[in-house]
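pasting for ref. prot 1 ->
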Amino acid sequence: MRFSQFFQLNLEQPYLDFLDIPLDTDVAAFIDPTGLKQLDSEFGHIAQSLMQTFFDKVLQEIANNNLSNAISLLSHLSESNEFHLGLSKGKARGHGIGAHNAHKLGLAISQSKASQSGLLQDLEDTCLVIEGIGSDMISDAICNIIRGPLIEYTQEMCNLHNIPLTPNIKSGPIWDGDKWTQYFTSLPMTSDGKAILVPKIIIRHNISYSSSEYYRHYLLEDMQRDEISRATTLVHYLKDGSPRVTKTDLLNKYGKDKKAIEAQTINHRSALENYKRDKGNTLTHALDHEDISEITKTPKLEWSKVQQEFSLISTGRSTAHDYENLIERTLTALFYPCLNHPKREKSIHNGRKRIDIEYTNSAKNGFFSWLAQHYPAAKIFIECKNYDDDLSNPEVDQLSGRFSPSRGKFGIIVYRKCKNAHLLDLRCKDTANDQRGYIVTLSDDEIIELIKERESANPYSFPLLKRKFDALID
């Protein structure tokens, strides 16, 4: 049984911002620290800070010869099953460091020449040079380090979908940037215990760092150049006289395990620096709907069903909530992974104003990425109007009043139909000309057009949105 089934959400995975976890096992997926560092959002920034402060603290304690303190810090990265991520084939059990491995890892880091020389700077570096540390352990450790933000995210998703929260549940260890703490909080309780949800935008098939990739494509290549420059016995000469050192010969001489990788990294520091730089500069893309369907073993998204739903809801105040629900789940699927973290009825200005739906703009390419590069668009605001009649100035002014330079100055009004679409476009253009923000309107038919665009070879370009935006600024 999945989380959504337990709470009878009647929503399939594409309509959910979080990973719809099975309650009795794990999803074969991971949180990638590199991907988290590339997430330019409030959640991403907090997660990045927590990861860095934690490992800095561990290294600081080791540098000060406080090994017991370092081990204590590491021991809180417990083998937790609330997240349901990893490689378990049976019951979810987590792959965290835990008390037993904390002592071994603390000793390994303290005795590591890479650590002593200052080469280890991030938690994920350990999986390159320390035996026994793999992608599942790194991912589970990060889950625990960012448990605080994940709990807040879980509570927000539960509020969004009217999922009951049970009060006075132990949070588990929370890293606050300086120390571990714990408190009682509210969490969803399932038949398998408490659950902590993970945004699907931070899920990957694996973490970016790979010791074999690092060794073969970075470190060994540095070693080849070094052997040639020193004209060692490993150098062979081709018929044309050019020198050559094979990677096989290097592996046979220096070894293949992580001890060998660490030893050679000390002698070739630039290899690790280049590897980390290239990883940081290479975007790790979020899993798409098809990828997530595959790893969660859930049905694939059928866009035709989405289109059909618009004809099932009539206009008018009595069905306004149903229409807003339809828009939220449709746009969550349609704009993923560009937009994420939906919030309903978001209050601003001390509760004096409310936004129907708010998304965080996390786009790495396509229309929303372009928008964020040229205009304030950290948040994207959606207003839903299930009217029988045409929209007028008050509806446009209502949305523009929600804008600010920090939140964003772009929004979308979704509506059913319009007799005078040209007049509505002029009202939005007036708002842009008055420097009160940029508003695009979308009818039912235009949302269906966007769905068809999504099925194209460039699913995130959304040409219709670009044309409408260009019309505002022409």
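and prot 2 ->
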Amino acid sequence: MEIAPTLFQKRVYNFVRTIPKGKTMSYAQVAEAIGRPRAYRAVGNALNRNPYILEVPCHRVIRSDGSIGGFNSGTARKKTLLRAEGAI
């Protein structure tokens, strides 16, 4: 049984869709942008559960210190995608 995304997850996914190819944002920046500045960990959790991999480019969200962070398809895949887009 598939569980529908929560309202918070939908906000995260809708915002992350707007991050342009070749650009990145931190989990904290996404949290701030959706009006939940202290919810950066929840942003990471939402992206880890992203069922819309092709539509929501969660690989464009990285840690505030510039490191890659996690990715549900593995960090090597995340780096590959970011390199292909010219973001790193």
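Residues 15 and 34 are 7 Å apart (CA to CA).
Strands lie at 25-26, 61-62.
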